[in-house]
Design goal:
The protein is an alpha/beta fold. 30% of the residues lie in helices and 20% in strands.
Length: 243
């Protein structure tokens, strides 16, 4: 429970990029508001949909009748990172959260993530699969190896252990004056490397492989990731402090 007065409670926007997540989005939205029902946050979910042919946009409009859901419709599939940036532009919150729309990110830790920013004064909080208490369920060995390698080769650029996490919350102002390159799908790493923050924290959770729909991982995304890492070789940023 977050021990703040109502005047001190921050507003929160949770960005959910989607492409063909019609079957998953209603459950995700209901689960998010369920875990937050005891807190008095001003929370909105910003669904950024890339013109999904399965009707994800229509599902978001239907959810908006009963929940604080804002739909940002884009004309075509333009990538996860740019979707997150478009979501941030349209978000109202002081705290920004990012999570996948495929139910792989467990909403149960959202109150802890917000608390780590609102009360504990961290500026960046990462949902982590690779610290004590974190784990991955139902991933084939090939996906585990790809993930491990991706985490290892990003070691020089950030002290965050789950460097490829797509589940994170941050204070909006850590991006003030920062140029973000929305290439590929590892927008979290881009913010970890370039964001203007001093205090950060990782919170463990169980990553669950999607039960419905298809993974967006492909060879092109791997190439984009390697290009992204290469761009950081000569990038310098201020030291961050782990909580």
């Amino acid at each position: 429970m977050i021990l703040l007065s109502e005047k001190e409670l921050p507003s929160v926007s949770i960005i959910v990029p989607t492409y063909n997540e019609k079957d998953n989005l209603p459950e995700l939205v209901k689960n998010i508001f369920s875990v937050l029902k005891k807190d008095k946050f001003d929370v909105e979910i910003v669904v950024v949909d890339d013109n999904s042919p399965d009707g994800t946009g229509d599902a978001a409009r239907e959810l908006a009748k009963n929940y604080s859901v804002q739909l940002v419709s884009r004309p075509e599939k333009s990538g996860l990172s740019s979707a997150v940036m478009d979501g941030i532009k349209n978000a109202k919150g002081d705290i920004i959260g990012v999570m996948d729309g495929d139910l792989s990110h467990d909403p149960v830790i959202i109150p802890k993530m917000i608390d780590a920013i609102a009360r504990q004064k961290n500026q960046l909080v990462v949902g982590s699969r690779y610290i004590k208490g974190g784990k991955i369920e139902n991933w084939p060995l090939s996906r585990r190896i790809i993930s491990w390698v991706a985490v290892i080769i990003a070691f020089p650029f950030t002290g965050v252990k789950d460097r490829t996490s797509g589940y994170f919350f941050f204070k909006r102002d850590i991006l003030d004056g920062v140029t973000i390159d929305p290439m590929g799908f590892k927008i979290g790493l881009e913010i970890m490397v370039k964001g203007n923050y001093k205090r950060w924290k990782e919170i463990p959770y169980t990553f669950k492989n999607r039960a419905r729909g298809n993974s967006k991982m492909n060879f092109d995304e791997i190439k984009h990731y390697l290009t992204q890492l290469r761009s950081y070789i000569f990038y310098k940023k201020q030291l961050t402090v782990k909580d």
